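User: Reviewer 2 asked us to show a designed sequence for the structure in our supplementary figure. I'm pasting the structure tokens here. Could you produce the per-position amino acids so we can include them in the response letter?
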């Protein structure tokens, strides 16, 4: 990809000698300097791609990136782990003219930054399936192009927007499966390929990125290959990582670790990590949800506490959350709690995340115990 652009970069270098190197953030992170070598400090490149996709690093995000690459191979893509990380990427990018923010539940801070960019002439699109973004989609004159609804994966929402070709529907279906969502794409793909095949492909892609959760280069490569119309199992890089995760028994080991640490009270399973987060071999909340369900819980909560701030992931598990109307809508609950006590949060009926003051953790848990 980088080589494919090299002639453009060189042409730009002659015009604009003070520009920064920026390709998917890789050069920056690797510390490669534009001034390396014996040349005087004049030669540098700039990233002249105009469209920037910012999405998550999970299956929903990787598939979303593939759908966008299928339409525009020259796209710039950043993978992030949270809305606040997305905000950092948005702030640093003063070049792009068009932004697609996909699968990232909004916060007031993100909206404000995006609106500022829109005022300066950038086109901003929010494609999402989180509850707080869906609510925001109803706001008139926000200055942003918002397509958001719950129930489908963010990738399916993105595909609705992009309207790409036939092969991309089964990719969206894979994202639906991993996200416990449904869409017309899933129904169609299931009729065409069968549930077993789709579920297997979904698992392969889901395991593969967990092999090394920090590796965004892998995500770029995987998304580009999937954009060519391959199944996950047909991409060597994806399949190799999947097999390695299987052979190392990581899923089973993650389950064991959760079993040894989960604290259950009133059908709520709580898993706490302190400053040094115990590795769950990449499986995090997925392993937590599985064990909590075994233990008869209705809600599972993972808490990562620092001194002043804690981040929480909440998952609805079991029969109640498999149905349409659980007693406690986690996305709405977290949204209301953080509106009252800070800091930020939101999500879906059965899956939500929040950043709160550490002193408010007991209060939040108390409310969950009462409401479940
Ligand atoms: Mn998602």
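Assistant: Here is a per-position design you can include in the supplement:
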């Amino acid at each position: 990809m980088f080589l494919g652009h090299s002639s453009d970069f060189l042409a730009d270098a002659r015009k604009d000698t003070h520009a920064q190197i920026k390709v998917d953030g890789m050069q920056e992170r690797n510390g490669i300097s534009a001034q390396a070598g014996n040349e005087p400090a004049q030669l540098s490149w700039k990233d002249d791609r105009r469209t920037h996709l910012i999405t998550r690093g999970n299956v929903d995000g990787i598939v979303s990136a593939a759908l966008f690459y299928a339409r525009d191979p020259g796209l710039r893509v950043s993978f992030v782990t949270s809305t606040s990380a997305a905000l950092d990427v948005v702030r640093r990018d003063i070049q792009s003219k068009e932004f697609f923010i996909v699968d990232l539940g909004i916060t007031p801070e993100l909206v404000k930054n995006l609106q500022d960019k829109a005022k300066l002439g950038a086109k901003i699109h929010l494609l999402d399936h989180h509850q707080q973004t869906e609510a925001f989609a109803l706001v008139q004159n926000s200055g942003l192009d918002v397509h958001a609804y719950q129930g489908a994966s963010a990738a399916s929402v993105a595909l609705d927007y992009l309207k790409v070709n036939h092969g991309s529907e089964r990719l969206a279906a894979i994202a639906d499966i991993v996200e416990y969502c449904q869409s017309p794409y899933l129904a169609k793909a299931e009729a065409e390929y069968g549930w077993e095949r789709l579920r297997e492909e979904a698992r392969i892609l889901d395991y593969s990125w967990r092999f090394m959760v920090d590796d965004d280069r892998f995500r770029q490569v995987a998304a580009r290959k999937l954009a060519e119309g391959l199944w996950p199992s047909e991409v060597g890089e994806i399949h190799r990582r999947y097999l390695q995760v299987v052979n190392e028994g990581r899923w089973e080991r993650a389950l064991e670790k959760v079993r040894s640490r989960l604290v259950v009270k009133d059908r709520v399973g709580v898993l706490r990590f302190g400053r040094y987060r115990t590795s769950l071999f990449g499986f995090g909340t997925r392993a937590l949800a599985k064990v909590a369900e075994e233990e008869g819980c209705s809600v599972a909560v993972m808490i990562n506490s620092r001194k002043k701030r804690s981040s929480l992931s909440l998952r609805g598990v079991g029969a109640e959350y498999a149905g349409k109307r659980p007693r406690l809508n986690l996305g709405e609950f977290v949204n209301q709690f953080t509106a009252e006590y800070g800091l930020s949060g939101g999500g879906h009926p059965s899956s939500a995340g929040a950043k709160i003051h550490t002193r408010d953790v007991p209060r939040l848990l108390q409310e969950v115990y009462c409401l479940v």
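For the response letter, you might also mention the following. The chain has two domains: 51-247, 250-371. Residues 1-42 have pLDDT under 50 and may be disordered.
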